[in-house]
Amino acid sequence: MTGAAPRPTLEAVAARAGVSRATVSRVVNGGDGVREPLAARVRRAVEELGYVPNQAARSLVTRRHDAVAVVVAEPESRVFADPFFALQLRGISKELAAHDNQLVLLLTEGRDDHARVARYLSGGHVDGALVFSLHLDDPLPGLIQQARIPTVFGGRPGWRGGRGDVVYVDSDNRGGAREAVRHLVGLGRSRVAHITGALDQTSAVDRLDGYRDVTGDADPRWIAEGDFTPGGGEWAMRALLDRCPDVDAVFAANDLTAAGALRVLRERGRRVPQDVAVIGFDDMLPVAEQTDPPLTTVRQDIEEMGRLMARLLLRGPAAEPASVVLPTTLVRRGSA
Amino acid sequence: MTGAAPRPTLEAVAARAGVSRATVSRVVNGGDGVREPLAARVRRAVEELGYVPNQAARSLVTRRHDAVAVVVAEPESRVFADPFFALQLRGISKELAAHDNQLVLLLTEGRDDHARVARYLSGGHVDGALVFSLHLDDPLPGLIQQARIPTVFGGRPGWRGGRGDVVYVDSDNRGGAREAVRHLVGLGRSRVAHITGALDQTSAVDRLDGYRDVTGDADPRWIAEGDFTPGGGEWAMRALLDRCPDVDAVFAANDLTAAGALRVLRERGRRVPQDVAVIGFDDMLPVAEQTDPPLTTVRQDIEEMGRLMARLLLRGPAAEPASVVLPTTLVRRGSA
DNA sequence: GTGAAAGCGCTAACAG
DNA sequence: CTGTTAGCGCTTTCAC
Fold this sequence. Notes:
With 336 residues, chain A is an alpha/beta fold.
């Protein structure tokens, strides 16, 4: 494919306006230092010809692209199902727009795509990349680091051999988890269980660590593995009730998991919070406010995380690369 | 932001390998017509220097980008909630990957974004655009046509003044709707109602037209406006039952709507399909197979639509621009 | 303030 | 086969 009709060049505009290419260039890029009558003539010529600068040519000399790639190493099916990601993307989108940068979303599904994405990033199409490294064993982050373009990760990357100089934005998962569990303990609960998230994601591991920080070497039977989905929450809650019928509190790795757990608790006739107190994580309003009872949960500002990722990337390599860990806050509702 | 360390150029590789730039270029681009020993030397130099071609420079001369933009004129929130879109995107993604093209997803939310997207498309970053023009009054399609790059629309664009030469891929919404309603009539149903989709989308309008094709000038009270969501389906079904208690069949504009309608029917004690037969549209498996009873519905191959859009775009302006309307098929399950 | 000239890094004829 | 030579369209010193 070869773009449609030949589009007018700077040269053409210059000829039409009776000035030099340099002058047109100046006008097109803000117009400082060009006297008004001339500038007006140039603008008219641009208008008449429908001139649009060729970005490839421009980038070739400026080495800037005013575009940022967002790389998601997940099949669309998952990406598009995850409200968490949508929120983060919105934050990114807003921040980039404010800096007049174009957001370029690169989806990868499978090995072949990795190579293409790596090539795209190294190829000089974008000024930087925002990468979601959702899984511990994802090879993409490594590939991207080799592309040697400024990169900010969403969530602490957990890939083995992670070098020290990666920049990421994350919530204080461990601290938030601690606060949740402490709250349960403060409520007088002494048999606090935990339903984990998918343990190939650092967020799940960190929350588990936070739980352990408070409970110490708790009986491992009080830890049930989930996967951040309601179904996983149900399954784990059942297992938990079967092996520890006297559980009196549950800290779930996220709100969806908690929602699943709540369903099972009701099904088994446990009252929440009287018999079993439940705390989630995320504070996704559509979930947390709709459950019965409304969910006490650890809030993280997801959209802000996205915004911050973009900001960190755009500020360039000037400031030393410092990751940011955002604080979380406990939101009390009815479930604990 | 200014890309990181200065990256090696063709020149550098040529110097290191002791050949000319042209030779390196040949090797890098497939290597035909370069004798093996030389080619090997070049490859080693490329390797050692970590050379990656500068795409801006390449595009400047080839006028190709091997990248295609997918433009979605919807806020992320909606895009990411819609499984329909995810499926289409998957089809596109696969087809583009097969042709070694990079998919660049451009999201727009609000006026400001439109300008940026238009600029991006005109700026020569991509070889073409795939555009989802979901709403009748969307200004984006018009803007994009002005960008004068090859474009294929997803779904018949309904914008006023639509020129004749737009290329789009769509399902035979009208024909599918006709088949559904005819099926209901063939079942002996004589009071067939319709719950529409969001009528600012052509797909909803076309399905309504198909319904009318069969029912003729039916009493307008048998038509209730929905919005493609389960909630809308519930609401519309209630209205329908209130004003036409003797309704014996419902054609819903999509499966989600049908699912909502089914809930209300059960709630009101109507048996499906004995008292009221129900047909949906889409055949989204997770929905259609999970309802009770399983949903009879009009299937469209959504992923194939995506694939086709990409194929149409990639084949270039060679073949005359012909839109494609894919056939639908009625899938019989339990509800009608 | 404005223009002339020199490239940015690469590919594509065209010679040899 | 390989090297030489022109640019692609734009920005950017540097003179005027």
